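TL;DR need structure tokens for one chain.
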Amino acid sequence: MKLKKILALVLCLCMLAGLVACGSTSTDTKTDTSAPAASADDSAPAASGDSAPAASSKTQLNVATELTNSTMDPAGSSYNWFPLRWGVCETLFKFNDDMTVGPWLAQSAEVADDGLTWTIKLTDGVVFSNGEPMTATKVVESIERLYDVTDPEKGGSGEPQGFMTYTSISADDAANTVTIVTTVPTIDLPGCLAYPWTAILDVTGSEGIDVDTYGFVSTGAYVVTYNDPESNIQLAKNTNYWDGEVPFETVNIMKLGEASTRAMALQDGSADFAINISAADRAVLAADDSYVVDVTGGNRIGMCFINFQGVLGNDTLRQAVLMAIDGEAISAVTVNGAYSYTNNSVLPGYEVTNPYSYDPDAAMKLLDDAGIVDSNGDGYRELDGKNIELNYIGSSSRQQDVIGQAHAAQIEEIGIKVNFSIPESAGDARTNLGFDLIFNNEVTMHTGDPGNFMRHWYGTHDTVSSNFGDYHNDAYDALYEQLEGEFDTAKRQAIFAQLAQILVDDAAAIAYGSYSFNICSAKTVNGVHSATCDYYWVTKDITPAA
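>> reply
TL;DR here they are.
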């Protein structure tokens, strides 16, 4: 098969578009001399693209969020999307709402007949916030730096290597191209280069900057001037922005943990837009024409990993636990439709047959028949002579605490004790299998394709760092390995459908549903949008209302 294709950037990956349902309050700007302040160099290349926004007296954008990160380094912690979310960084490619890939800092990608050699044509005229041109050499330095700091042999997470591995990467500054030779055929390489941690940084130009606090010199519309992730983050316009006029002088990002507090900030005018408002508050806002409610679902799954090394490695017990949970009612009633139940499928859009649907009576009979009973009369069943106590680790984010407590109550109804907790950080527990059940809320198509997400159940915990529950099934592994080098859309879809069904048959996860992400905005601003990929929150397209 001829693999050489100019991707015109609808290539990667139209294949799943049909499956995805697209669906402190200070405003004073604080500065620090160590911040990578935007340059006012008039010799910077002229901006191109969008015209200036309509004249307005509003110069600051105010944002209410529940989530922040302790570092502004895209590679500084697992899944650090925030420099991209805040409009500080940009990537070579960008996702459309149907999860196809479009141009951004790069304009095209071409793969050779070998399926390994990719030529990336960079966008002309891109400059960093310090006024330095974005050259092919600087792009290569940025990508190499990501892989260097995350190298598992140097103590890094190794996570980018799970998305894309390469044998060589080279720059041609004259042609304005980057050539990447991957170790295996990588159908979603443009999508990999749209993932937030691949944001293009001026590594050399950032020397001497506290990058955890202020981030790297980058190409985004805004730069960080103050950063207290537990209170507020403040941004200033990048006066060297390459892609049009930046609409606001400053941006104030307020961390407000409660959804109701974020809704109040929107209503009292201290926020122009708020991220993740509860369904009840959204209904109030939607009834008022002063607000716009933008809800997107279909690409993010709420679920629990199951520890197969622990007591839930027992097939009967695990199956009974799943049968004790009324996932449909929890999604529709307990969290007011914040999640859409997926019949326990971890891949929204892929239909599965669930042999362990809600049936608590059948669950108790299953346990009784297996001899997993309450023999001492304390109300809880035993296995191998010991009371069963499940360690369930949850999170307050995205109503996962409410769901976890509902799960715990329903599981206890069949005689299984559940200790539900919300630690400050669940990272160690997840990495070291210190749980029986642990929350996860994750985009399933990080790169426009669910292959990386489904890696959570491939191999073993020892061989694949993201196999958090140490699940293993030879048939699953064999199917997963067929994805490597498979560029045929229909064949990949068929494999994903089979993988999703195997996980349901093995009771390998608890999927509580597809999360309906939302951004609600006041009509003080235009252009606010909740992107399907959940990567772009503050953008140059958000402008003051005229």
